Amino acid sequence: MKNKPENIKIKLPEDFDKSKTWEDYVSAYYKKQGFVSFNNIEIKEDLDSKSSELGEIDILAIKFKGKTLDKTLIEVKSGKNVKISDLVFKLKGQSIYLNIPNISLYVSNQISLESKHKKIAENLQVGLYQFDINSHKTPEESAYVYHNKVERLFIKIMNDRKGDQKFTQLLQYYKKIGNNLFLEKPESSLKQMYSSFKEGMYLTRRTCQSIFGENSKIVVLEKYSEVEKQVYDYIENKELTNKEFLDSFEKLVNIWIAEFIEHKSRYNLLNFLMIYAIEFKPDLYNFLPENFKKAITNLKEDNNSFLLPYFWQVFYELLGGFIIIDPKYKDSELYLINKLTGIDKDKIEKYLLQYNNIFSSRKETDFFEKKCNSKILALKYYPEPFKGLGAYYRKLSNSAKNYSDIYEGEIAEELKKYNNLTLTFFKQEEDIRKKC
Fold it and tell me: Which CATH class is domain 18-135?
């Protein structure tokens, strides 16, 4: 057997999607400040039709403050030929239409802002700022930026496979679960969001059934595990040009995309439930099933529930959908989460497992699994590239060179596995798309 790969630093293809880099860094900046951030959201009059779009929001940032919401519309421009005045007026119009008064425009620090631009922005109450991405390279901001890039790679793969009806439908569904944030009537937006959530239930299972040609849930999961193990064996042996590896890896990426969309739907719905718990009366969500109505009631009664949306963002995007519960490391892990979210250490696992209470209509359903002999608690079927970023963030936040510098034994090996699967995904993305 060849030597196992070293813990290589995760690095994106240098030419990948540079036009969105500034948006990713501004979004990451807001996330680090305690905002929940949604990127690249189209505004439409009617989500069910192909009616004219009312523009796109680069970033919607929401900070949950007790029983109030602080929403900000954000536009980001990095090019040198930017018409500042046009952008300011456009943003003001969108803010009026969406009834979101806080507006910010970020431009590259290489763009000089003239006094007339500042005056127009001031008169229209639009924040106008220069932004230097080189000043925003903290471990948290770097990890958030990489998370956005993985999402963009998934979307790019779907776009490149538009000839395949399965991927066309996945892409349409992905857009729908984001667009629903901006319907005018709140009761309609929640109904659409819940309808989209129901549509995406079991998306991963259906994708696996299509890929493996099997209907049995047990057989499908067995085949999924076999492909995952086969791919990692090839990575360990550095056989990344092997045809069997490429075929297996392509299947795995297809499944990761379905997993990503299914979890994205749940994540957006979690935020919707919190928004409704804060802003709206119970009669607006009477149509929901009992487990969701009960969840909203519990959120209303919990004085610390406003911390949950940010907690879920941290769990999904910084921590990779898993926490380390080995007694040797658990306290430091909970301390890290407390430092990031403000949630008391003794309440973190309780809030984490609320996921089951919200999304499970049956008591026996558990959306979490214990790995590494019960040393890691992880969301089931969360895409490996995101887990790799969670592992990488822990290495960055500990200023460590290797995972073995932080953890011992199988935990270090598991995190190295996540890391190397993510790295391989970045490396193989171009080869996979060439085969489409």
Answer: alpha beta
